[in-house]
Amino acid sequence: MTKQMLCRGGLLRWVVQLLRTLLLRIMSHFKAELQTSYSSPSLQIVPKYVPIPRVKGLPIVGTLFDLIAAGGAPHLHKYVDARHRQYGAIFREKLGGTQDAVFVSSANLMRSLFLQEGQYPQHPLPDAWTFYNKRHDCQRGLFFMEGAEWLHNRRILNRLLLNGNLNWMDVHIESCTRQLVDRWQTSIEQAAANGEHYELPDLERQLYRWSIEVLCSIMFGSRVLNCSEMQCALDEFSQIVHKVFEHSSRLMNFPPRLAQLLHLRIWRDFESNVGEVLQQGASIIELCISLQRAQPPSEQEQEEALYHKLQAAAVPSEMIKRIFVDLVIAAGDTTAFSSQWALYVLSCDQPLQRRIARERAAAESQLLHGLIKEALRLYPVAPFIGRYMPQDTQIGGHYVEKDTLVLISLYTSGRDPAHFEQPLKVLPERWILGQTEQVHQSHGTLPFAIGQRSCIGRRVALKQLHMLLGKCASQFSMQCLNEQPVDCILRMVTVPNQTLRLALTLQPKVAAL
Ligand code: HEM
Ligand SMILES: *[C@@H]1O[C@H](CO)[C@@H](O)[C@H](O)[C@H]1NC(C)=O
Ligand SMILES: *[C@@H]1O[C@H](CO)[C@@H](O)[C@H](O)[C@H]1NC(C)=O
């Protein structure tokens, strides 16, 4: 008995010995190979993944109650921000008990995520929308496409909206923006004639209308905006698109399928509203087409319209309609609220307004550029960008399995002192080349995402912001009248927690430096 055990023990020892030798051989082999590529001081052959901290929650409902206690969906970005403070730059949580997601907030983890997003990056879609599309068998634009269909159309739009010579669309953006700012100027003059101060009325609706106008003139040329029928259609359209986002934000913390089954008001409102938007969007296209038939555009006008560029690229008209309506929906609230945030930031800093005005008079734009970067960094309208991982992968030494939803916490990363010196301060100078000590990681702010599935409207939106803020700084002196501190809440996009009140007065023309 003991002899047998000894024997077995001996065998065991021998096997272990053999394995050790083999292991050593393999290790030295790897070491030699590794040292030629990287000179890594310590060596691990078995990849050792650092576990991702998991936020503990109740079964089924997960951490839903914590989220509700924190103020619910409108405060999601703050809730996640607090989690990052508690758990670090990466953690895992079953938010609301339905969706298990990994949250990341450091520039390095974010970069690593985009590098591994795959050929057809997949982002999460709002439940209410996908449910609507399925129920109504509705074919949608770029944001809702996937796979080869997405890539095909995305490539065409990349060429037309992001790369190459884009002066043709600047003409339209400039013209719409000039009209808006000139209207403000006239109103200030009228108010001043009556000895009154001028406070911008209905700022949100005005900016909404402006961003939709910009998109329509990019699509069909500025001329279509000139007829009264079109103006009426646009008024109506901007009102109902605006409502969409109220309705879908109400559905944000309620399962849409259940709302539909229970025949709840929130679902019925949403459903009828989305139906209206899609219909009104399509009829605007029809109107434009018939206007053009009545008065054919010149060759130059054709060259300055996305619609003709898409036709020239052999995109079928059904597809053009789908794409257009979704561009408008994606452009409306993002641009309108980014502009509001930038106006807010600028209105809090009178000396900066003067500096930007002087800079513009000297045909420079560094400070203006920096101001817009700062507004988007502190107030990213899309505070969470998500990707489903196309395969098992590792992100910053953490193992992440296929199909996991990874969400980037842009609100947190933009305010992280590891990325930006004095992160809560608006310092446009930090973006001027050569002042990099105030920016440790420029990738800490990615308001439009990066990679293949990043925002297709980035160029349009940035140009709009530049023109609006630049003109405002040159023509007006702006002051924020809100008495309470302004903070951001999430209503599909991040919006101010109160109506912004901006007072404008005329600014005498400034001479160049
Ligand atoms: C400041 C304004 C804007 C911001 C901050 C913004 C932000 C973003 C972000 C972060 C994404 C990526 C979403 C994801 O990957 O899941 C995105 C996608 C998209 N954006 Fe924007 N956006 C803005 C303006 C616009 C405008 C003006 C348009 C239209 C001209 C537009 C059209 C789109 C479309 C169609 C997509 C989907 C692209 C795709 O799936 O391939 N956006 N936007
Ligand atoms: C729009 O109409 C006005 C006058 O009705 C005209 O002065 C202007 O040139 C027109 N704009 C375009 C782009 O056709
Ligand atoms: C907005 O948020 C700020 C900061 O949290 C707060 O002081 C203010 O009372 C809020 N205003 C409203 C109207 O909720």
Automatic annotation (TrEMBL):
Family matches, as InterPro entries: CYP11_CYP27_families, Cyt_P450, Cyt_P450_E_grp-I, Cyt_P450_sf
Keyword Heme: yes
CDD domains assigned to the protein according to its UniProt record, in alphabetical order: CYP24A1-like (cd11054)
Alphabetic keyword roster: Heme, Iron, Metal-binding, Monooxygenase, Oxidoreductase, Signal
Molecular function via GO: ecdysteroid 2-hydroxylase activity; heme binding; iron ion binding
Enzyme class: oxidoreductase
EC number: 1.14.-.-
GO cellular-component term (any): mitochondrion
Keyword Isomerase: no
Cross-referenced SUPFAM superfamilies: Cytochrome P450
GO annotation (BP), single: ecdysone biosynthetic process
Signal peptide: 1-21
Binding sites annotated in the UniProt record for heme: 455
Family: Belongs to the cytochrome P450 family.
Protein name: Uncharacterized protein, isoform A
